[in-house]
Amino acid sequence: MQRFALIGAGFIGAVHAASLAAHPDVEFVGVHDVDTSRAGALATRYGTRVLDASEVFDASRLDAVFVASSTDTHAQHLRSAADAGLAVLCEKPIAPDLAEAVAVADHVRASGVPAMVDFNRRYDRDHAELRRVVASGGVGDVELIQLTSRGPSLPPVEYLRSSGGQLRDQTVHFFDLARWISGQDPVAVSVTGSALVDPTIAEFGDVDTSVATLSLPSGALVQIDSVRRTSYGYDERIEVMGSTGLVESRRQRRGNVARYGRAGVLDDGLHEGWFERVHPTYAATLAAFVDALERGVEPPVTLDDGVRAQAVAEAASRALESRRQEVVTYP
Amino acid sequence: MQRFALIGAGFIGAVHAASLAAHPDVEFVGVHDVDTSRAGALATRYGTRVLDASEVFDASRLDAVFVASSTDTHAQHLRSAADAGLAVLCEKPIAPDLAEAVAVADHVRASGVPAMVDFNRRYDRDHAELRRVVASGGVGDVELIQLTSRGPSLPPVEYLRSSGGQLRDQTVHFFDLARWISGQDPVAVSVTGSALVDPTIAEFGDVDTSVATLSLPSGALVQIDSVRRTSYGYDERIEVMGSTGLVESRRQRRGNVARYGRAGVLDDGLHEGWFERVHPTYAATLAAFVDALERGVEPPVTLDDGVRAQAVAEAASRALESRRQEVVTYP
Amino acid sequence: MQRFALIGAGFIGAVHAASLAAHPDVEFVGVHDVDTSRAGALATRYGTRVLDASEVFDASRLDAVFVASSTDTHAQHLRSAADAGLAVLCEKPIAPDLAEAVAVADHVRASGVPAMVDFNRRYDRDHAELRRVVASGGVGDVELIQLTSRGPSLPPVEYLRSSGGQLRDQTVHFFDLARWISGQDPVAVSVTGSALVDPTIAEFGDVDTSVATLSLPSGALVQIDSVRRTSYGYDERIEVMGSTGLVESRRQRRGNVARYGRAGVLDDGLHEGWFERVHPTYAATLAAFVDALERGVEPPVTLDDGVRAQAVAEAASRALESRRQEVVTYP
Amino acid sequence: MQRFALIGAGFIGAVHAASLAAHPDVEFVGVHDVDTSRAGALATRYGTRVLDASEVFDASRLDAVFVASSTDTHAQHLRSAADAGLAVLCEKPIAPDLAEAVAVADHVRASGVPAMVDFNRRYDRDHAELRRVVASGGVGDVELIQLTSRGPSLPPVEYLRSSGGQLRDQTVHFFDLARWISGQDPVAVSVTGSALVDPTIAEFGDVDTSVATLSLPSGALVQIDSVRRTSYGYDERIEVMGSTGLVESRRQRRGNVARYGRAGVLDDGLHEGWFERVHPTYAATLAAFVDALERGVEPPVTLDDGVRAQAVAEAASRALESRRQEVVTYP
C-alpha cells in the first residue's frame, strides 16, 4: 500500500484523483491546491482530505507525491519531494527551461527517491502493443517511423503564448515516443512549420502546423507531423516500418457503427478530443509507478527521459528558425 | 440520491457492486448473499456493509434493490421487493418458467414499484447507436435484421444441462434486441440447430450451434445465429437492412494495432470473451435505471420486455424440435 | 488452341465475346444469334464472323461451343453440342425444369464431351481464396456458413414472373457455393420469405427477401439471405466458421477513398451492381474451361453440379411454401 | 480514330501496346524498337507491324507517337515528333538533365503539337477521386499533404547508379502528385535520407529511404516518404488534410479475404509490386490523351508539368546534400 498526496486539483488533477481513489494499492491521503475550495471539492468527491502546504511533503504520513499543479511549479515540488524522501510522479515538463530541468533531475537523482515523468502516451494500449512488437523484433531493424499528432481545436492564444511553442508543448510527447519506440536518441532534426489556423501566433514565432524529421544513430528516420486544429476530431497514429515488416497503431474511432448508403459507407469518426483518446492511459501510468514502488525497482519513465525529450524539442525549435538540420545536444 | 441494496455477491454481483459504488447518485447501502463471507469481501472492497435477509427489503433505509443472485431466486426477490415497495433492477430471466415469469411480472406491475430487467446489451454503445439510426428512420423500413451471438468457449456441461437450452439461455438476449431494434413483436419462428462442439449436450436435447429465423408483423425477417464456441474470441454483431440503407454494429476488436508482412495484414482480434465486450454496458444499464428513478418515469426495459423475449424463446424451442415454423404466443 | 463458337449475342454474350477474343489459347471462330444484326455487331467488334445455325455445331471447324443464349434454349444446345462431339460451356441453368436438366446432363455425360456449367462466382478471386483456406483445413471442420446475396434493384416484374422464383433464379448460385465450399450436399432446407419491395410478385407466389437455412450431412449449418433490392449497391459476402477459425470474403468496395469529417469517416461504397462485382469472374471461368480442355481433364464445374444446385432450389421452393424443413432429394 | 506508333517494345512498351490494341478509338499502326525481334514479338501479339526508324514519324500514316523507349532517347523522339507534326505521349522524364528537358519542352511547345507526359499515377482511380474531393473544396483549404511511396524491393544497383538518385527517379512522381493535388508549385524543400538497405548506393551519393518536406505558397506543407524496399509489398498512400476535413487514398490490398483466429484477424496484404497497383492507370492515361486529341484540346498533363516536377527534384537533391531548406527554382 502506497500513501499518496496529490498536488493540483485542476482539470488534470481531478483525473489523477479518480485514478488514486480507484487503485487498490493506493491510500489517497489527501489533496493540496493553492485554491483550497477546488481542493475541497475533490477531497469530498473522493473521500479524502485537503492538505495544506506543510502536510503535503510529510514523510511520516506519505510515501509518494503526485505533482499535477501548474507547469511553473513542477521543479520546486520535485525538489521538495526529493528533500523529503518521497517518491514523486510528475506531469511533464520537469521545468519549462531545459537547464533548470537538468538541474532538478540531477537533484532528484542525487536524493535517491524514485521519480517518474507522466509521459502517459507510453501507456496507451495500442502504442504499447506496437512498441512490444518492435522491441521483440517483429519488424526487424527500424527504418522509418511516422507519428501523427493532431488536436481538434486551437488552444486559447494566451495559453499558446506562454506554452514554449508547438514543438516544446505538443510535439515533445512524440519526441519521447520516438525515443521509446526506437530505443535510440535522435542525433539531428529538421523542422518546417506554418501558422495556418491563426496568424496571430506567428507574431510570437510559433506555428500550428509543423513537420519534424529526426535522424537516429542507426540512420533510421522519424517523421512527426503536429497539427493544432483538425476539423475531424482527435487524430493520433504511429507507424513503424522496419526491415522485415510494418506495425501501425491506427487512428482510433469513437465506435464501430457503419451506415451503408448510396453515397458510401459512413463509419464512426475519431474521438472528439485528446481526452477521450488518452483517458485510459492515466490510470495505467499511475499503476506502473505504483508497481515500481511496490517492487522496489526504478520507475519505467525517468526524469532523464523527460530531459532528453526536452533536448530534442530545443534542437527542433532551433531548426524551425534556422531552416536547416540541427544537431541534438543532450546535457 | 437512490439508496441501493445488492442481492448476490458472485461474479456478476461483484460487477454490479463496482457500478453501484461508482455511481454519483447512488448510496450503496449494503450487500446480501447466502454466502456471508462472499458478501463480506465485496462490502470491504466497496466500503459498504453486509445486510442480512431481514435488512435487504427494509424500505425505511432503502429505495431500490439490485437482484443479481442465482436464477432460481429472481422471482421470489422480485415479489419481496414489490411487497416492500422497493424499486427493483433484476438480472434476466424473471423466472426460468414462462408462466411463473408472467405471474411475477403481473404481481410487480400490480404493486406499482418501478422494475427493470437487466437486458444490458441494449446499453452497448454501438448497439444503441445502431438502434438510434433505425428508430430515426436512417435505413427506412426495416426489412432484414441479422444478429450474431457467438461465445468463445462452451460453458460447463452441468451448467448447460440446467440452462433451459441455448435458445432460452443465450439467444434470448438477441430475441430482445430484435424486438427493441425493430419495435415489433415477432409472430413466427423457425430454428435449425446442431450439437457440433460436444455431442453430450444432444443427449438432453440441446444444441450449441443454431440458426433462428423470425418473421415480424411487417413481413421483415430476422436471422440470429448462436454459437457456443468459436476459436477466435467473442463475436457479436448486428446488421439492419432497411428500404433505404443498412446499418451495422460491427464486430468489436480488442485493439487497433496492425502488422503488415509478406503473409498479409494481421490486425488485433476480437475480445477474448463476452465480459470484455459487454463490460461497459453494466454501468450504463444501472445509470439508465437510476435516471428513471430520479426522474420518476418508467424504467426503459420493463418486466414485460423480459416476458416477451422469453415467449419468443419458448416458441423457438418448440420449432427446434418440430422442424417447422412455430407461431409465437404472448401471454 | 481451342476453336470456339459463341451462341448468344445479348448482354452476357457480349461479355463472353470479349473473354473469347482476349484469351491467348482461344480461336474465336464466330458468333450465332437468332438476331443476326446483334450477332453481326459483336462479330465486327471482335474481328470474328457470324455463324448460321448449321455452322455453329460444325465439329470440323470447332472444338467447343459457349452457350449464352436464352435460358429456354440451353438444353437443346447442350444436346446438339454433345451430339456433334463438341465441348460445351453453358450458362446456368441447364434447363428450367429439374427433370429435363437431369435428362440433358445424362445425355451429355453419355456422349463423353467435356461440359461445364458457368457457375462463375466460383472464380471470384476472394471466394476462391476463401474456399482454398477452407479446403486446406484453415478453419478446421466447417460448422456455420453464411452467404449474403443482395442485388441493388428489383428486376422487371415480367422477368421475375418467368424466372422460377428468387430461390431458383438468384439463390441457386449460392446453393452451388455452399456445396463447393463445404464439399457437402445439403440434406435439408428451411426457408422464410417475404415480398417487401413489390407486393405484385407475391401474387405469383414469389418473394424478394428470403432466408434459407441448409443442414449439411456433418451437422454444419448454412444461412443464405437473398435480397432483390438494396439501396446501397451490390452486396455479396461469404463467411465460413469452422472449429478452429473463421474466414470471410468481405463485401467489396468500389474504391479505397476515405473522407474524414465531423460526421464520421465516409468510405467508398459497394459496387453499383452485380456486374461490376463479378466482371472479372467471366474471363476466369472461361480460362478454367480452356485449361481443362488443353490438359484433357474433366472441367472443374460439371453439369451434375448444375443439377445438384437445382435440386436444392427445388426443395427450398417447397420449404418456402410448406413452412417446414424439407429434405433435399438428388436425382 | 487516332493512328499511333509505339516506340519501345520493352516491359513498359508491351504494357502500352496492350492499351493501344484495346482502345476503341486507336488504330495501332505499328511498333518500333532498336531490338527488332522484340518489336516483332509485340507486333505479332497485337496484330500490328514492325516499323523502322524512317516510318515511325511518318505523318502521312500517323497521328501520334507513344514514346516508351529508354530514358536517354526521350528528348530526341520528342523533338522528332514535334518536327513531324505528330502528337506525342512520352514516358517521364522528358530528359534526365533539367536544362535539356526545358529546351525540349520549349521546342515542342513552339511546334504546336499536342504533347503529354505519362504521369500515370494521376489516373489511379483512388488518387483521382481524392483530387476531385480536394478540388471541389471537400476538405477546405489544403494544409498538410502526406504521400507515401514505397516499393517492395531494391532495383539492381547498376540501375540505381544511373537513375539520377531516388528523388529524381522515384519521388518525382510524387512531386507531380503534390503539385496536381494542391494546384500549387512548391517554393522550398528539405530532405533527409539514408542508405539503409544497401550501403553500396551511398558510395554514389544516393539513398534508399528518404523524407522530403515541401512548402507551398499558401504555407501548406507536404511530406513525402520514399522507400526502395519494404518487406510487405507495394505501399502507396496519399492523405490530404484541409481546414474542414481530411481525404485519404488508402493503401490498396490485393483482395478482401480475412481470416479470424486466436492470433488476430489476418487480412489480404498489399499488392506484390508497383505494377499490380498501377496497372489500370496505363490504359486510363492513354484514354485521356486520346480523348484530348479527339476533342482538340490541350492534353491534361503537359511537358511543363514534367519540367516542374523535375525542378522540384533538383532542389530536393540539393537539399539532401546541404541539409538545409532549398528554394525551388522553376525555369
UniProtKB/TrEMBL annotation, chains A, B, C, D:
<dbReference type="InterPro" id="IPR055170">
    <property type="entry name" value="GFO_IDH_MocA-like_dom"/>
</dbReference>
<dbReference type="Pfam" id="PF01408">
    <property type="entry name" value="GFO_IDH_MocA"/>
</dbReference>
<feature type="domain" description="GFO/IDH/MocA-like oxidoreductase">
    <location>
        <begin position="128"/>
        <end position="247"/>
    </location>
</feature>
<feature type="domain" description="Gfo/Idh/MocA-like oxidoreductase N-terminal">
    <location>
        <begin position="3"/>
        <end position="119"/>
    </location>
</feature>
<feature type="signal peptide">
    <location>
        <begin position="1"/>
        <end position="17"/>
    </location>
</feature>
<comment type="similarity">
    <text>Belongs to the Gfo/Idh/MocA family.</text>
</comment>
<keyword id="KW-0732">Signal</keyword>
<dbReference type="InterPro" id="IPR000683">
    <property type="entry name" value="Gfo/Idh/MocA-like_OxRdtase_N"/>
</dbReference>
<keyword id="KW-0560">Oxidoreductase</keyword>
<dbReference type="Pfam" id="PF22725">
    <property type="entry name" value="GFO_IDH_MocA_C3"/>
</dbReference>
<dbReference type="InterPro" id="IPR036291">
    <property type="entry name" value="NAD(P)-bd_dom_sf"/>
</dbReference>
<protein>
    <submittedName>
        <fullName>Gfo/Idh/MocA family oxidoreductase</fullName>
    </submittedName>
</protein>
